[in-house]
Design a protein that fits this description.
The complex is a heterodimer of chains A (401) and B (254). With 401 residues, chain A is mostly helical. Chain A folds into two domains: 6-30 and 39-318, ABC transporter involved in vitamin B12 uptake, BtuC; 319-384, no CATH class. Chain A contains 16 helices and six strands. Residues 387-401 of chain A have low confidence and may be disordered. Chain B has nine helices and ten strands. The chains are: A mainly alpha (401), B alpha/beta (254). The structure holds adenosine-5'-diphosphate (ADP) and magnesium ion. Adenosine-5'-diphosphate binds at residues 13, 16, 18, 36, 38-44 of chain B.
Chain lengths: 401, 254
């Protein structure tokens, strides 16, 4: 089925079902209840999770399979966003041409950077990609201002030509759409004391992410995917087996660059804006964190990592001191104030501190990421542990490896 | 003319003449051993054959074509496979995958973007790999991670990976160095079995002449970078020149 084995096909169907039902599944708490703030069924958060899942799944094809750790993939994401914005400005608000161009630009740009960076391996490769990405950031931020609009970022304007679209006399900026279906249109359904939001943009991102997950699954199970694992395992043996590792790594690099470009294009399609900060090293680091936190080299890991980080980022950054005082209000002031102070360091703006601690804990205690955590819990329930190296690599790579 | 013709090869490392005027001819379907004391230049010579080093002078012809200036993977594609001193395998992959990779390399060349085919649907490749594993009696280990195998099994797997390519020439660099007695004997038996069951041309680099004695059709003794004698094993053993070459180092490591 679809060129997949039965097991993988079922896996794909489950992922598809979860994606379709996400607006319901992620809204488990009734409106107005104290727990409602832990709901995640908001279009904008779900879009971000789907987009970052695409970014991380692509990154995992490079890092998880070949072991080449790029610290510059945000450059391709940013380039994809700019490419999409130019399509919105010049051609049409239809997201299709924008997405196609963002993938192409992501691919071209990664071909260029990959070709040079892959002359080295290990830490030197990582540093090269980091340097290229910082160069791209600086170019976008200042030098290429006519293309990127510098620090303000690229935005829509009423004066944009948009040659394919009908003249716009409404006086307001047009919305991004897919053949007339606006990305920001949402159907709200009230049911069981909850408000479920079914948003067009989310479903576009979600379905594309399932499609990209499927593509990655095919790559993982292909001879090409096996060669990528061989690259990670022993390049010397590859050379003396008549194989040339370089084109394999370059192909993986370009594929992951196209995934990043696609993610960037979708970001701009959901919110027509593109700024240089999307290319900064912190953004490159984020996808590394997602992949390792979820479980590098596994199919589900990057998706889990993206969902986990984006969800907790959203929840934690909403918790400010007022919320905390509310939680601890039952306690006497002498205890409440220091507790709130302490908790506030880890929430709101301090969310990155929590993320850092979590990341350290995972790397130290669960080197295989959340997927390994899930397997361990699963192992407690199951007596017999099935050993399928493809689905569950023995031990996911350590960052430093 | 042999399948491998080494003519007048010389290689210098700074002030050290590691190889000089090396002439060697390996005939098809024979086992040719190159032995010599430590530092004789055996590994240097082998590296000149596989593209890791480029000799300063002379020529290396394989199957009538020069190998000089070609990359290791190109030389492998010409038909030379190599077994390393410490087995080089894909430790993170399964034993079966380890043997499938050379099958793909042989069928598809140095690079092919087969990203949408399915490994498990490659019936021909699977069959070939499984047949090879069963020939070397490793089929029951097909789904183990190669990195978990014993040293002797790793060597066996590496041999399987090389043999499945059906190389025109198989090069072995000290295949028993650092092995325990039992593993050494196993490896010798394996090599004998391979020689007896299929047409194969092998060149074995070895320090210890006893290892290759019963295996080789011809032996070249290398000393200080130059071939000393080349003959059938029986005549090598008693040769006073060979004794002399080995004499200086009998107290060494062994
Ligand atoms: N890459 C190198 N650089 C400098 N000298 C080398 C290099 N490789 C080998 N040699 C020297 O060349 C000589 C032959 O070495 P080698 O071919 O390894 O001998 P063998 O394998 O017969 O023990 C030795 O003296 C060794 O120190
Ligand atoms: Mg040596």
């Amino acid at each position: 089925m679809l060129g997949l084995e039965r097991k993988d096909f079922v896996f794909l169907i489950v992922v598809l079902a979860l994606t379709l039902a996400a607006p319901i599944l992620l809204n488990p708490f009734p409106e107005n209840s104290a727990l409602a703030q832990f709901n995640a069924g908001y279009p904008d958060l779900m879009q971000r999770i789907a987009i970052f899942a695409i970014f991380a799944v692509g990154f995992n094809i490079l890092f998880g399979l070949t072991g080449y750790l790029s610290f510059g993939h945000a450059a391709f994401l940013g380039a994809g966003s700019y490419a999409a914005m130019w399509m919105f400005k010049l051609l049409s608000m239809n997201i299709l041409p924008a997405i196609v161009l963002s993938v192409l630009i992501g691919g071209l740009f990664s071909l260029l950077i990959g070709y040079v960076s892959l002359r080295r391996s290990g830490i030197y490769f990582s540093i090269l990609t980091l340097a290229f990405a910082q160069m791209s950031f600086n170019l976008a931020y200042s030098v290429l201002t006519p293309l990127t609009n510098g620090e303000t970022g690229l935005q829509l304007a009423l004066t944009d030509p948009r040659v394919l679209d009908a003249a716009n006399n409404s006086g307001s900026l047009p919305d991004t759409a897919l053949f007339g279906l606006a990305m920001n249109s949402t159907t709200k359904v009230e049911m069981l004391g909850r408000v479920f939001q079914f948003n067009v943009g989310y479903y576009v991102c979600g379905l594309i992410s399932v499609l990209m997950f499927y593509v990655a699954l095919r790559i993982f199970r292909s001879p090409f995917g096996m060669m990528l694992r061989a690259v990670k395992s022993n390049q010397n043996r590859m050379n003396y087996t008549g194989l040339s590792p370089r084109p394999y790594t370059l192909a993986a690099f370009v594929i992951s660059g196209m995934y990043a470009g696609l993610a960037g294009g979708l970001m701009a399609s959901m919110d027509p804006l593109a700024g240089a900060e999307r290319m900064q090293w912190t953004a490159s680091g984020e996808v590394v964190l997602m992949t390792i936190l979820g479980g590098a080299g596994t199919m589900l890991g990057p998706v889990l990592g993206a969902g986990f980080i984006k969800y907790f980022e959203n929840i934690f950054s909403k918790i400010n001191e007022t919320v905390l005082h509310g939680w601890f209000s039952a306690l006497p002031h002498a205890i409440q104030d220091p507790l709130v102070w302490l908790a506030a360091r880890f929430t709101g703006e301090g969310w990155h501190l929590t993320l850092g601690v979590l990341f350290m804990l995972v790397v130290i205690f669960l080197p295989g990421g959340l997927v390994e955590g899930g397997q361990r819990i699963g192992g407690l329930f199951r007596r017999r542990k099935t050993d399928d190296p493809e689905h569950h690599p023995k031990r996911a790579p350590h960052v430093a490896e | 003319m042999g399948i491998l013709e080494v003519k007048n090869v010389g290689k210098r490392f700074g002030g050290l003449q590691a190889l000089s005027e090396v002439n060697l001819s390996v005939a098809e379907n024979t086992v040719h051993a190159i032995i010599g004391p430590n530092g004789a230049g055996k590994s240097t010579l082998l590296n000149c054959l596989v593209g890791k080093l480029i000799p300063d002078t002379g020529s290396v012809l394989f199957d009538g074509k020069s190998v000089l200036g070609r990359k290791p993977h190109e030389i492998n594609q010409m038909g030379i496979s190599r077994v390393f001193q410490t087995p080089e395998i894909f430790g993170d992959l399964t034993v079966l995958e380890n043997v499938m990779i050379p099958c793909f390399a042989r069928r598809d060349g140095a690079f092919r973007m087969h990203a949408f085919e399915r490994v498990k649907a490659e019936a021909g490749i699977l069959e070939q790999a499984e047949k090879m594993l069963s020939d070397l009696r490793m089929l029951e280990k097909a789904h183990l991670h190669a990195g978990t195998l014993s040293r002797g099994d790793k060597r066996r797997l590496e041999m399987a990976m090389c043999l499945v390519q059906e190389p025109k020439l198989l090069l072995l660099d000290e295949p028993t160095a650092g092995m325990a007695r039992a593993d050494t004997n196993n490896t010798i038996d394996l090599l004998k079995e391979i020689k007896a069951t299929r047409p194969i041309t092998m060149a074995i680099i070895e320090h210890d002449m006893h290892v290759v004695f019963s295996l080789a059709d011809r032996i070249t003794v290398l000393a200080q970078g130059t071939p000393l004698v080349e003959d059938v094993p029986e005549n090598i053993k008693g040769n006073p020149k060979v004794r002399e070459a080995y004499l200086g180092e009998t107290q060494d490591a062994e």
